[in-house]
Amino acid sequence: xxxxxxxxxxxxxxxxxxxxxxxxxxxxxxxxxxxxxxxxxxxxxxxxxxxxxxxxxxxxxxxxxxxxxxxxxxxxxxxxxxxxxxxxxxxxxxxxxxxxxxxxxxxxxxxxxxxxxxxxxxxxxxxxxxxxxxxxxxxxxxxxxxxxxxxxxxxxxxxxxxxxxxxxxxxxxxxxxxxxxxxxxxxxxxxxxxxxxxxxxxxxxxxxxxxxxxxxxxxxxxxxxxxxxxxxxxxxxxxxxxxxxxxxxxxxxxxxxxxxxxxxxxxxxxxxxxxxxxxxxxxxxxxxxxxxxxxxxxxxxxxxxxxxxxxxxxxxxxxxxxxxxxxxxxxxxxxxxxxxxxxxxxxxxxxxxx
Length: 354
Description:
- The chain has 354 residues and is of the alpha/beta class.
- The protein has helices at residues 18-30, 98-101, 116-119, 122-136, 138-162, 171-207, 226-232, 234-240, 261-264, 267-289, 306-316, and strands at 6-11, 52-63, 66-79, 82-91, 94-96, 107-111, 213-218, 251-256, 259-260, 294-298, 321-326, 341-346, 349-352.
- The protein is globular.
């Protein structure tokens, strides 16, 4: 097996801080945590009594286009409404927006919870698509951010209309904005899934004894009929006081040999499908950004049998930087760790191992 040029292994028991390390690395790539929904969740509650930098991550990143320094800090300030959280981002010491940091360092994160991409809520699958697309195209991220704001305003207007405090005609403008930004999202999700469908099946076949994986995009509406569909569901939307059509309602499904994996797949098949999806995402990012994404594997080896562990380690060995956390070093095959940088993580402290 070819060893990656930069393999880093963090070993330690559960609840020692290994996942926090990978969370910080992923946040530097995407400006978001893979676990936290809000910035508040990134902050230790002991920091809420004073105005301080409550959370901060920095990195010196080497790319083909040059070296950059990235810093993300979450500042807590006190107000009459309680603690307020503000995210501040710098690139090479200059204040930037979140949109400016995404794509500076591409990363693919695979965790033991990613099996939920197969059977979990649709929002998890949409988030996965959005993270991949945002890292390769800033226009997609812009459309996503604008769509979220339009959706919020439109839903507020639907509530006012339902309460007879606004006129239905006001929806025309917001319908246009929803279609304009939503169409960008739908089109690029369609393109991404087409690429994943090209990349994932051979990966899945190699680690599943020849099973055929297919990924299906399930948009709630197509671009051509988006505006018309909004007209058709208007009364329903007013009654429900929410937008029921658009990419915020999209989903994906996975089939193996023609059978829906969520309904008919075994736990092992679901896990293999999730693994194949993530490896396909890594390959997609490498092709699109013309650089190497960082591969982050958070305690996934324990969830795989020996065959799948071998296939995973062999697949990631072609990437320039791979970071793996594990509770047990015996999950690695003999020889794989010979050129690895190894660290012990205990109670939040990282110590080099010899």
